[in-house]
Structure formats: C-alpha cells, structure tokens
Amino acid sequence: MTSATGLMGFWITALIILVATVAEAQTNRANGPNIPFPPACPNMRNLNNICKEGQKRPRYPEKSFPPSGSSDLRRRGKAINRLESWYNVCCHGQNAPPESQILCCTKQAWKQALSQFCVEEYSTMSSVYECCQYKDVARWTCFDSELPNPDYNGKPLYTAPLMPQEPGFTFNSNAC
Q: Signal sequence span per UniProt (predicted)?
C-alpha cells in the first residue's frame, strides 16, 4: 500500500510540473520570455559561473517569442545568445586564450556583444535601450548596473538548447 501511495504521489507531482511547464511556455509564447537583461560585466567574482554554468543559462531561440511584436525582446534575446556563444569561445573554444586571459576575453565579448546590440537598437524606429544612448565608460557603467543576474547563476535542472555559433568575435590578446 505504501508503494502504491508513493507511486501515486510521484505521478501527481510529475503532472503538476508538466502543467506548470506547459502554462509557462504558453505564457512566454503569448507575452515573450522574461529575459534577464542586461548581462553583468565579467569580473573575477562571476568568471567561474560564466564558464561553468553557461549551459544552465537560458537561450532564446526564435520560437520562444510571440509570432509578432516584441522586437525589443528579440534584440535582447539575440544579444544574450550572441554573448553566451562568444563566452563559450573564451572559455572552451578551440582557440580559447590561456587561462590567465579568459577574463580579458570575456570582457571583450561582453563589450562587443552589447555594442552590436546598440547598433541593432539604433536601426529600429522604436525607442533605444537607455544604456545605448551613452558613450564609452558611461555606456559600460550603465549596462553593468541594476543587474538581474550579476553572478551568472544557472537555472537548476535547465539545459540550454543547442544554438548555432555566432560569428563576429575574435579575441584580441594585445588589448589585455
């Protein structure tokens, strides 16, 4: 009797999780995903998570957005996808830099991905993300404030979908 009760409890729990997951997916599909943006600037405190937790942080394939609208969310999702791809180059890529230069590489990836994001923001007719209005140090300071995930923590039990490698990033070791 105990094993039957335990088995029924297991199936009820599994059903609740399934219903919650489907409901969340439908909500995200209708309203767009909740994208933790902006990403934090890499530093010694979050570098380990950047490199080790990458597959546990969300990616935003096209199917995660509503069929129309949400162009601002699409640009943010694209920036996160690009950044995660480039972090992978810095941390694990075939031409990854020596360990002593990984932080420099991830900072370059962060700045380049957010610079590209701002170029894309200015190419639209909608309002531009606030930090993109600033230049140089002021822009980076703005992007590195009010962070939703400053430590780059991954989501437990989440595995990022396979995404294509984003082109356009080459680490410049001379800039370190």
A: 1-25
The string of pLDDT tens digits covering residues 77-127 is 999 999 999 999 999 987 788 888 999 999 999 999 999 999 999 999 889
What amino acid occupies position 33?
P
Instruction: Delimit the domains of the chain by residue range.
Output: 9-144
Contacts 24+ apart (CB under 8 A), 170-174: 171/89, 171/90, 171/95, 171/97, 171/101, 171/104, 171/105, 171/108, 171/109, 172/108, 173/97, 173/101, 173/104
* Residue located via tokens 């694990």: 92
pTM, entire model: 0.80
